[in-house]
Design goal:
The complex is a heterodimer of chains A (about 210) and B (about 170). Chain A is α/β, with parallel strands linked by helices and about 210 residues long. Chain A contains seven helices and seven strands, in the order H-E-E-H-E-H-E-E-E-H-E-H-H-H. In chain B, about 25% of the residues lie in helices and about 20% in strands. Classes of the chains: A alpha/beta (about 210), B alpha+beta (about 170).
Chain lengths: ~210, ~170
């Protein structure tokens, strides 16, 4: 039992001509969680307009800059090739998102979390480095702060934002702080430094040489 | 309830708290406590190290193989490692008694070693990890696992390729 309209995927596809990657799951309590990844970020406004007509609310926006996916089996290659002639490695193409945005660690993953009568639909738009995205603030007032936060944390340009002032960070500080500075959570994560593991290894050698 | 009835009942029943540490106490079976690692069933995928939010798990190369360490002092008992472990090699016991003196803090470690072995096919030195089972179609039989176990990754890949071709 889902509260999302049955033909939602088809209706979203109709307004997003470049295509959407649709994913939906309903849990035991009948709550549906759906994800729609846009092939083209310019389809965001038509999609959001359709959702507005369906009575959706925008709960939250999340921006992130995911690291490039790790290259697989790199270490095993090293271990198995000792002495032998190194196998020729073909140039691996950079992996891309559903819409073709290169996932090289510089692209932005923007997630717009919509609520449709209790069910969640997250619309995902990828923005390549240096790209921009249309503002949803004229449609949803809740997008205002989220978009302003995006602009100061990352080098994402939000087009046509009615009030593009700084949200939290002082205007004197250069934007895109997450790309230049070390996040506080990383800074304080000193629990597992190399020095710590060296100490643990040393103690173990003393106990069982 | 009358306070006197309550008083009389408590006198008869005695205290309801456990006498721990001077006597026995009860721990729920599903209590999520100290991490336990089983090197024999580990595939060596290192997913636990990657997902551990507190960085308590560390795989390191050792002259004898691949060493696993989980430092209990950093572990937050979230169970993420056990959730993601494809083989159930890492699990949470219901042991919560991890109090220790500061001098012993670096000994509060769950240590395991995936030993080195020699590949029976090509003779290369390789880790004695459990063969990867998830996503293999059709699932590996006990014989397949027994054949794959003493092989190096390259010979394992060869075996899997032949197996696919046979089916």
């Amino acid at each position: 039992m889902t509260r999302l309209p049955k033909d939602l995927e088809a209706r979203l596809s109709a307004v997003a001509p470049s295509g959407i990657a649709w994913q939906a799951a309903t849990d035991a309590n009948g709550v549906t969680t759906a994800w729609a990844e846009l092939a083209d970020r310019n389809d965001l406004v038509p999609v959001a307009t359709l959702l507005k007509e369906l009575g959706a609310r925008l709960s939250m926006t999340t921006a992130s800059q995911p690291p490039a996916p790790p290259e697989e089996d790199e270490e095993e290659e090293e271990e198995t090739e000792d002495g032998a002639e190194p196998a020729e490695k073909p140039e691996k193409p950079v992996p891309t998102s559903f819409g073709g945005t290169p996932l090289d660690g510089t692209a932005y993953h923007l997630a717009y979390h919509f609520d449709l009568d209790g069910d969640t639909l997250t619309v995902v738009a990828w923005v390549p480095q240096g790209g921009d995205i249309a503002s949803l603030t004229p449609l949803y007032r809740t997008a205002d702060w989220g978009e302003r936060e995006m602009m100061e944390l990352y080098a994402v340009v939000v087009r046509d934002h009615p009030d593009p002032r700084r949200l939290f960070i002082d205007p004197a500080i250069e934007p895109a702080v997450f790309e230049r500075l070390i996040p506080y959570s990383t800074l304080v994560n000193a629990a597992s430094t190399k020095g710590l593991w060296d100490k643990i290894a040393k103690v173990r050698k003393e106990v069982a040489p | 309830m009358n306070v006197l009835t309550l008083f009389a009942r408590n006198l008869l029943r005695g205290p309801v708290t456990d006498p721990y540490p001077f006597g026995p106490t009860v721990t729920q079976k599903r209590f999520r406590g100290r991490i336990e690692f089983d090197a024999a069933s580990c595939e060596g995928c290192k997913l636990c190290e990657r997902v551990c939010p507190s960085g308590a798990i560390k795989f390191s190369k050792d002259p004898n193989g691949l060493a696993f360490d989980c430092w209990h002092a950093t572990c937050v008992f979230c169970g993420t490692c056990a959730f993601y472990c494809p083989t159930g090699s890492i699990r949470q016991t219901n042991d919560w008694s991890l109090a220790h003196v500061a001098a012993d803090k670096y000994r509060m470690v769950e240590h395991g070693l995936i030993p080195n072995q020699t590949c029976v096919e090509c003779g290369a030195t390789t880790l004695d990890t459990a063969p990867m089972q998830s996503g293999v179609k059709p699932p590996l039989t006990a014989e397949d696992v027994a054949t794959l176990r003493p092989l190096c990754p390259k010979c394992r890949a060869k075996f899997m390729k032949n197996r696919k071709a046979k089916k």
